[in-house]
TrEMBL record, chain A:
The keyword Oxidoreductase does not apply. One of its GO terms (molecular function) is GTPase activity. It comes from Apostasia shenzhenica. It holds the Pfam family Ras. Transmembrane segments: none annotated. Keywords: Nucleotide-binding. PANTHER family: PTHR47978. This is Ras-related protein RABF1. It comes from the Eukaryota. NCBIfam families: small_GTP (TIGR00231).
UniProtKB/TrEMBL annotation, chain B:
It comes from Apostasia shenzhenica. This is Vacuolar fusion protein MON1 homolog. One of its GO terms (biological process) is vesicle-mediated transport. It comes from the Eukaryota. Residues 165-286 form the FUZ/MON1/HPS1 first Longin domain. Plays an important role in membrane trafficking through the secretory apparatus. Residues 325-418 form the FUZ/MON1/HPS1 second Longin domain. InterPro entries: FUZ/MON1/HPS1_longin_1, FUZ/MON1/HPS1_longin_2, FUZ/MON1/HPS1_longin_3, Mon1. Residues 481-580 form the FUZ/MON1/HPS1 third Longin domain. Belongs to the MON1/SAND family. Residues 43-52 have a biased composition (Basic and acidic residues). The lineage of its organism: Eukaryota, Viridiplantae, Streptophyta, Embryophyta, Tracheophyta. Residues 26-42 have a biased composition (Polar residues). Residues 64-76 have a biased composition (Acidic residues).
Length: 222, 595
């Protein structure tokens, strides 16, 4: 894996969370972001992560147990690096109660649903509510409709999802882990967003969520 | 039993609530006889997996064998160690062969099938329709049976019935939780039948252990609100099957903990299946291992053969992290232990290791990246989750670090980085790969004369293989027709098993031998005829020899034509050989294990 040691250094985060460090590191040139993926089982959370981290896609589904931890560093245009420390959580019901363990202290929550499954979209809404109630108040949420390659079987319209995302101050994107569509955009966009807002100190201090759309919506995928 | 208040099941009760156990059991036998005639009588089934001596027709002794119900006294604790105290006292031999044809005297118990309907109503899994009549008459039963047959004749069901060994988990309200074969939800009716039988006997303040129907055995295990049932025609001993059910239950606890019982206290009709979502592979892998992994009946673990110094190096770094607050640090290669260390006073039961290894190896996602997952070690503490950090260090070797602290991830990750760098530096991982390539003990390498052993080259694994010429080969395998052996060290709770060699060439032969060992184990540890010291048994397949002392148990298989005196002599040499190599094949913990 080659992950650098992320053992708590100087800044210990909230106690009782898995991050053990600040969600976004202080060094403005090297941002470190804790990101958590949530969503129903089988929507492709692990596939999104593996596509992003390893550039792989494995169609045989492997049920995640507990949560997997992966990291990936990307470079932005001005040589700033963003290191994503990604918690890929299991979608199974028995792990739902343990989700706070993984999302506490996360800077970014990526809530994933499957565009061919209305149930998974409902589950995504459950996670959004859960994060609004129990997540860190300044958490950035992204709503991701995965399996965009299966658009012929689409059951959740992009319009509905976008409206829901806007209403809840979320960033919305449809991806396909299979074809790699929008996968890098999802993470790069998140990185740029965090970076910009980091330098402007807007999102981290913003108390207007979910009303404050400017944070989310003003940003563009490069 | 609350659940039994479903109208159709109610009719199962005798009208007078007399706790007449014998009568009750007879009724259950009748129910069971029908059950078996409906669902189990498919002796023409073949899946090629097993050797079955009979042809398609029922054996002549089918009806004579009769049904037996072994009732366990309520007082008897459902202990894990097979201790059926006072168990067979309630035996009733059901000899009415007519029962098999469904022509037993009409009895209220015909609702063995009614239960099916009762449950199908809310589960909608079964196409079966209820005719709405509360009391179920014999006619209804016969009709029902026919309908059941029709129902069973779709593709899925026919193949379901052909299976030789079923494992079914259900809740005390009759809701299916897991089935080895078929869709649990479609088996709602069948599960309800099983529930009716179990709760009927439980209501008589008794316990149902086993029902025999011809070649089939139905073994029951009740664990609070969870019922586990095995239905098979594999001729395995009752004790073995019950221990397999215990392991299956343990595997469920490993995933969910025993606190699942509380869900049933709150809601008896609680549906557990969603909580086990995605774990089918874990259970089916465990059940598969009943056929190949001797750890499942020996209750011991086995180590990957390694030079003493290599294992020491691995143990030292694991001990290091255990001292820093890690509860257990376990380094394994597939199902074999490289080294393991526990914190002060923490003990790890071999069954927990088996279940943990099975869980990790059967969950593919552990291979892709480092993981952090709650798991429960049922023998350590069935009520609480531990947090497991799991990382594969190479394709076969994985490190498991267990902590009681849910926030321990970054600490455990740090420990793993330290451990991994030490293992790489001290070449342990390469040695592990080499050991996998070379394998363990080969019977062909058994030293010829024990007097040669001290100081000879064969003192190390794999070194003696250059001298097979000295070995007097009788046919194939090792000296004196030795084909295979398992040596279990009682003090260490570890076993070593020889590698398979000709003529034991394929999986079904391995499985057959393990079944034979399993029967041997069960008969040697039979509580009623007392623990035995030696057994020598010859059949058409093998000569089997078992020798149990205070320190070890030896199980050996020889060519069926092997000479007895030679075989016994060879067994002595095997024991000596194992002792000579013990530093390489066993883990001697400097760690505080007090099994």
């Amino acid at each position: 894996m080659g992950c650098a040691s992320s053992f708590p250094g100087k800044n210990v985060g909230r106690s009782g969370s898995l991050n053990g460090e600040q969600t976004v590191a202080n060094d403005p040139k090297n941002i470190r972001v804790k990101l958590v993926l949530l969503g129903d089982s089988g929507v492709g959370k692990s596939c999104i992560v593996l596509r992003f981290v390893r550039g792989q896609f494995d169609p045989t589904s492997k049920v995640t147990v507990g949560a997997s931890f992966l990291s990936q560093t990307i470079a932005l245009q001005d040589s700033t690096t963003v290191k994503f420390e990604i918690w890929d959580t299991a979608g199974q019901e028995r792990y739902a109660a343990l989700a706070p363990l993984y999302y506490r202290g996360a800077a970014v929550a990526v809530v994933v649903y499957d565009i061919t499954s209305p149930d998974s979209f409902l589950k995504a809404q459950y996670w959004v509510k859960e994060l609004q109630k129990h997540g860190s108040p300044d958490i950035v949420m992204a709503l991701v409709g995965n399996k965009a390659d299966l658009h012929e079987n689409r059951k959740v319209s992009a319009q509905d999802a976008m409206e829901y995302a806007e209403k809840n101050g979320m960033f919305f994107i449809e991806t396909s882990a299979k074809t790699a569509d929008n996968i890098n955009q999802l993470f790069e966009g998140t990185g740029i967003y965090l970076y910009r807002n980091k330098t402007q100190l807007s999102w981290i201090t913003c108390n207007n969520r979910p009303k404050c759309r400017s944070c989310i919506c003003c940003y563009e995928v490069p | 039993m609350d659940s039994a208040s479903d109208a159709p099941i109610k009719s199962l009760r005798p009208a007078d609530r007399e706790p007449n156990i014998a009568a009750g059991l007879q009724q259950v036998s009748a129910t069971e006889a029908r059950l078996s005639s409906v669902t189990l009588k498919d002796s023409s089934s073949r899946d090629g997996e097993d050797r079955v001596p009979s042809n398609g027709s029922l054996p002549a002794d089918f009806y004579d064998a009769g049904e037996e119900i072994e009732a366990e006294d309520e007082e008897a604790p459902p202990s894990v160690a097979a201790a059926p105290e006072g168990s067979f006292e309630g035996d009733i031999a059901w000899r009415d062969g007519q029962g098999m044809d469904g022509e037993a005297p009409p009895s209220p118990s015909s609702s063995g099938y009614a239960g099916e309907r009762g449950s199908s109503g809310d589960s909608s899994g079964i196409v079966e329709e209820s005719d709405g009549s509360g009391g179920v008459s014999q006619v209804d039963w016969d009709k029902g049976k026919q309908r059941l047959h029709e129902n069973m004749q779709d593709d899925a069901s026919v193949s379901w019935r052909k299976r030789k060994k079923h494992f079914i988990i259900l809740s005390h309200s009759g809701k299916p939780i897991y089935s080895r074969y078929g869709d649990e939800h479609k088996l709602a009716g069948f599960a309800a039948t099983l529930q009716a039988i179990i709760s009927f006997v439980e209501n008589g303040r008794d316990r149902l252990k086993c029902v025999r129907a011809g070649k089939h055995q139905v073994v029951f295990l009740v664990k609070g609100p969870i019922y586990l049932v095995c239905i098979c025609c594999t001729e395995e001993p009752y004790e073995s099957l019950r221990e397999q059910l215990e392991l299956l239950y343990g595997q469920m606890l490993l995933i969910l903990t025993k606190s699942i019982d509380r869900c049933f206290e709150k809601n008896p009709k609680f549906d557990m299946t969603p909580l086990l979502g995605g774990t089918e592979a874990v259970f089916s892998s465990l059940i598969h291992s009943f056929g190949w992994n001797p750890a499942t009946f020996l209750h011991a673990y086995t180590c990957l053969p390694l030079a003493y110094s290599t294992r020491q190096a691995a143990g030292a770094i694991l001990q290091d992290v255990a001292d820093s607050g890690v509860l257990f640090a376990i380094l394994m290669c597939k199902h074999k232990v490289i080294s393991l260390v526990g914190a002060q006073k923490a003990t790890l039961h071999p069954d927990d290791m088996l279940l943990l290894a099975n869980f990790i190896l059967s969950s593919e996602s552990f291979r892709t990246s480092e993981s952090f997952s709650p798991i429960c070690l049922p023998r350590y503490n069935p009520m609480a989750f531990l947090y497991a950090y799991v990382q594969y260090l190479d394709v076969d070797t994985y490190l498991t670090l267990l902590s009681t602290n849910s926030d321990a991830f970054y600490h455990l990750k740090d420990c793993r980085i330290r451990i991994e760098s030490v293992l790489v530096k001290s070449n342990v991982l390469n040695e592990v790969q080499r050991s996998i390539m070379e394998g363990g003990m080969h019977v062909e390498d058994l030293p010829v004369d024990s007097s040669l052993r001290s100081g000879s080259a064969s003192n190390h694994l794999g070194m003696g293989r250059s001298e097979p010429v000295l070995v007097p080969q009788s046919g194939s395998g090792g000296p004196a027709g030795l084909w295979h052996f398992i040596y279990r060290s009682i003090n260490l709770d570890q076993y070593v098993s020889s590698e398979f060699s000709s003529p034991l060439n394929n999986f079904s032969q391995h499985k057959r031998l393990y079944r034979a060992y399993q029967r041997l184990y069960a008969s040697m540890h039979d509580q009623q005829t007392g623990p035995h010291k030696t057994q020598y048994k010859r059949d058409e397949d093998y000569v089997l020899f078992c020798w149990i002392t205070q320190d070890f148990e030896l199980y050996a298989a020889f060519d069926p034509l092997a000479d007895k005196a030679q075989a016994i002599k060879t067994c002595n040499r095997v024991c000596q050989w194992v002792r000579d190599l013990e530093n390489e094949i066993f883990l001697f913990g400097g760690s505080p294990f007090s099994w």
